[in-house]
């Protein structure tokens, strides 16, 4: 009986010894998954963080760049009151800041990198600021005359002035500044979302 018990004990130790390497191998497989490489870093940001501001910057930038060329069709323009007429002032004071704002909005809307999206937000800030100060600096910089509103009533003249330059620039500046502020923070929700993405990637990664 003593020999039978001894043989049973030896077989149990042998089976435990065979299972231990298998468990160690499975653990090593899990440890071999490059978690650090797949985990989003501090520069990752969800695209929804700047989606609203990015879309607003795109629409406002398109308005600012195109309104001097299409405004004469519905009597909403600055002099010269001619559609699709290029002037130096229109290029420097409206097309340029509008294009910069659109590019910033695209970067802000589609980028998941904090630095790239932040750069897009700052482009929006710069574009909005230029819409505001550009007409004032135009005579100093000799980049052309922005013209004057074609409306005859003072109220409509003020509306055109705001819609083409100062008011438009203030709204663009607002959305750009909001995006800059939101992108400068890394909230707890961002950390949890990044961790979920990393866990999902690890679970879907096949063992080598």
From TrEMBL:
<feature type="transmembrane region" description="Helical">
    <location>
        <begin position="91"/>
        <end position="110"/>
    </location>
</feature>
<feature type="transmembrane region" description="Helical">
    <location>
        <begin position="163"/>
        <end position="185"/>
    </location>
</feature>
<keyword id="KW-0472">Membrane</keyword>
<feature type="compositionally biased region" description="Low complexity">
    <location>
        <begin position="16"/>
        <end position="28"/>
    </location>
</feature>
<keyword id="KW-0812">Transmembrane</keyword>
<protein>
    <recommendedName>
        <fullName>Secreted protein</fullName>
    </recommendedName>
</protein>
<keyword id="KW-1133">Transmembrane helix</keyword>
<feature type="transmembrane region" description="Helical">
    <location>
        <begin position="122"/>
        <end position="143"/>
    </location>
</feature>
<feature type="region of interest" description="Disordered">
    <location>
        <begin position="1"/>
        <end position="28"/>
    </location>
</feature>
<feature type="transmembrane region" description="Helical">
    <location>
        <begin position="51"/>
        <end position="71"/>
    </location>
</feature>
